[in-house]
Amino acid sequence: IYELDPIDAIRQLEAFADDKQACKNIRLGDIYAVMIAYNVHKANYKKAYSLVQQLKDREPSIELNRYVNKEIQDIICEKLELSSFITDDKNLSECGNDQQFANDEEVDYSYAMKRNFQ
Q: Does 60 reside within a domain?
C-alpha cells in the first residue's frame, strides 16, 4: 500500500496508532517509525519532531533508538536547529556536536580537539 499510495498508508497508520486493539498486534514504535521516516523524507521536519514527541508521550519508557535510527534523529535535530530532543538515558541521542554523559568524569574529546585547532 505504501508504494502505491503513501498518503493513504500514512492515514491508515495514524488510524492504527489511535486503535488500541491494533496496538495489541502492532508495536506502537513501529507505526510511529514509519510515519516519522515518511515525514523526514518529505522534509516535514516539524511534523516528524511532533510525532517523536507524541510517541514519547504515549510510551514514556520506549527506547526510541530501537525504532528510529540515529541518522533520522540527527536530521530532525539539524533541520530544526535543536541541540538534542531526547534527554533521558534510555533514549540518548545527540544532535550536532554536543555530548551528554552519565559520568561527569568523561572528556568531550571533540570539544578539546576544536580548541587545539583555534
A: yes
Long-range contacts of 29-37 (CB under 8 A, 24+ apart): 29/55, 29/59, 29/62, 29/64, 29/66, 29/67, 30/67, 32/67, 32/68, 33/67, 33/68, 34/2, 34/9, 34/10, 35/10, 36/68, 36/72, 36/76, 37/68, 37/72
Give me the domain span that covers residue 61.
Answer: 6-117
Q: Does the predicted TM-score (pTM) go above 0.85?
A: no
Cell of 60: 514514556
- Residue that wins the pLDDT comparison between 114 and 1: 1
